[in-house]
Amino acid sequence: MNTQVLLKVDKLSRRFGGLIAVNELSFYVNKNEILGLIGPNGAGKSTTFNVVSGFFKPSSGTLNFNGQDITGFKSDRVSRLGLVRTFQHDSMLRDMTVYDNIVIGTFSSIKHKAERDARVRETAELMGLIEVLDNVAGSLPHGLQRLVSIAIAFAARPKLLCLDEPLTGLNQTEVVSVLEIFHRMRQEYGISILLVEHNMKAVMEICDRIVVLDHGEFLATGTPEQVQSNPNVISAYLGKRHEKQ
């Protein structure tokens, strides 16, 4: 695997008044890597996502993306550089067709209509949405709606795709299908993925490495096998980490 660093997060903190949501967190994402970011509820995963993608400014620390300091950049500027995210809840426009939703993701990178159309269809083909391009997005089953939200982000062909709980509400068959799509994104398009997800079985299957947060702080990192056997991680997930202190 190419081990060139794509995203470097260094001593990142985010405070909300007196609450420290993320505290001096450091981690990195390599090019062509799928990295999982996990932790118990309230661990700071969503806040980290919001800071990395430019929706929140960091209170302290630095962010470097593809060799450029992006600390404090707003979300639109970050996305133009090739770091694009999805949201926990579907971010599609429910009253528009699938086609019109996906085309939104191409506006920042493609000027000509014919090229946009080709990008939308190529994206829909990969995502399994080609048969429903003319359907109103809000009329689709939940699993397909999740795919539309991912397709909007993927249509920009980002360097790093940040996925915030993309498997929520999917059945096991749908999960397997979506994980295969993520593999193809990496293999065929060279896209790196930063994944926040509660489905631990899926995380362990697809991620090259995992970073674990607990109470806004770095807890552990390693391969799925290393993380699964880490006693600190096991304790954090069982809620017993502080009982004996």
From TrEMBL:
One of its GO terms (biological process) is L-isoleucine import across plasma membrane. GO terms for molecular function: ATP binding; ATP hydrolysis activity; L-isoleucine transmembrane transporter activity; L-phenylalanine transmembrane transporter activity; L-valine transmembrane transporter activity. Residues 7-240 form the ABC transporter domain. Keywords: ATP-binding, Cell membrane, Membrane, Nucleotide-binding, Transport. InterPro entries: AAA+_ATPase, ABC_AA/LPS_Transport, ABC_transporter-like_ATP-bd, BCA_ABC_TP_C, P-loop_NTPase. GO terms for cellular component: plasma membrane. This is ABC transporter ATP-binding protein. It holds the Pfam family ABC_tran. It comes from Advenella faeciporci. Gene3D superfamilies: P-loop containing nucleotide triphosphate hydrolases (3.40.50.300).
